[in-house]
Amino acid sequence: MTEQRKSFWRRHGWAKWVAAGLLLMLAVAAVVVDLGLRRVEPYLRAHIVEGLKSRFHARVELDSFHVSLVNGLWAEGKGLRIWPPAQVEGVGVPVGQGEPLIRLEDFRFHAPLRYRPGEAIHVSVVELKGLSIQMPPRSHFEHPTETSAGGSEAAVKPTGAASLVSFDVDRIECTGAELIMETDKPGKLPLEFAIAHLSLTNIASGGAIGFNAELTNPKPLGTIHTTGTFGPWQKTDPGESPLAGDYRFEHADLGTFKGIAGILDSTGHFEGTLRDLTVDGETRTPDFRLTHYGNTLALTTRFHARVDGTNGDTWLEPVDATLGHSHFTAQGAIVRVRGAVVEGKQQYGGHDIALMVNVDRARIEDFLRLASRSNNVILTGDVTVKTKLHIPPGTAPIHERLNLDGWFALDKARFTSEKIQGRIADLSLRGQGRPGDVKTIDPASILSHMESSFQLASGVITLPALEYTVPGAKIELKGTYGLEGGALNFDGTAKMEASVSRMVGGWKGMLLKPVDRRFKKDGAGTEVPIHIEGTRKEPKFGIGVDRTKPAEKQ
Is the pTM higher than 0.85? Predict the structure, then answer.
């Protein structure tokens, strides 16, 4: 071998050995780092578990935790469970039983490798998936404890690497979360919220956590956007933790409630605790309608309400509403009711609504149009109403379940049916002793006043003591009006100021003078039976001098 070739192999053989040595060192380093990470992982896991125990004052379990140093620090955990504070050894629900307060399928985060002893590792975002929060009822926390952790497993004190490591988190982002508020009230369902997205900030302060969330509301179906603060965390009962914020409820479909329809938007502010919220807001439904009838009216409300977060029960205190051109207020309770058990599965029962309604400035045609298939309502006029309203839960449409029990007064009333209004005008003019004006006076100029107690059930209005007055006459009726089809069935008496002879007038009136005394009664010049039957479209209105027996008075 020449000297030149020997020199070449000496040079390149040395380089190959250097390269092989470097590769071996890197492999050894990788093995060392991997072994180091495997030894550090339990300590970091213990550090995270202990931090959560301290934060929630509760038993915490974490199935797995892994870290990687490829392109920074990557960490991932799976199977996180946090129990309510009362579920600890010897207190409340026995250890190993009951449901966790928080379940989390997995979490992960990334941080740059800029670790300095004594300084926290800065994490911009922690990502969560599969978060489920199941809040037990208040009774679960009747005997709280100061113990920070439960179970037979002793708390693991972080040592070694974990004692040198802390984390500073800017934000937590969560997708696919749910919140379930349990209740121990008989007959009540838990309240469930599906949270499409949740963002948390100000996590490390120990005070109130900032949140931004997007929720899917099941009834009425729509999307709620909300921002606010939650906390500080109340370890004795998390349900008593403070909560405050603002919400925007968009494109809520009222059609998810059987019997009504329309698209609702709402905005408002809430504050209180998870179990006891006060909500102030307003709603706008430009196309509110009863689906059975179809006519739409604009409905707007402003409300102040208290909400029991354990079951969704709501107390309205009050609601200030405008329907069409009519104003009214309502206050009372909307209670969620548990349904029947079908094949071992609890069914959703619906809501039981019980309100006191005060209609102070309204037009009767707004309410009649809402409960009619036609825009041509039977009556117009100013109306005031005070009534109890009850809508029990059930599968029937709302107009069939609606129950009313109250009193109303209708002023400046006019029938839209020319036939009925013509009869009213005829009755008024004859009652005043002006039969000659019947053909010259516009019937629409005769306005009426009407008032009565009333009940509405199964789509039928019952008027047990209706007083109807027009100039020259007072009519007392009792009977029913059917909202479906407009069926009329009323009996009563008509009392006129004029005598029978003056009512008829002319030579026929002169012939009736001998019978005037027979029809005079209780100060009235004439009292005769009256009957209204048929339908709103085809009414039959009769005054019968042959039916001399007055209707029974209420």
Answer: no
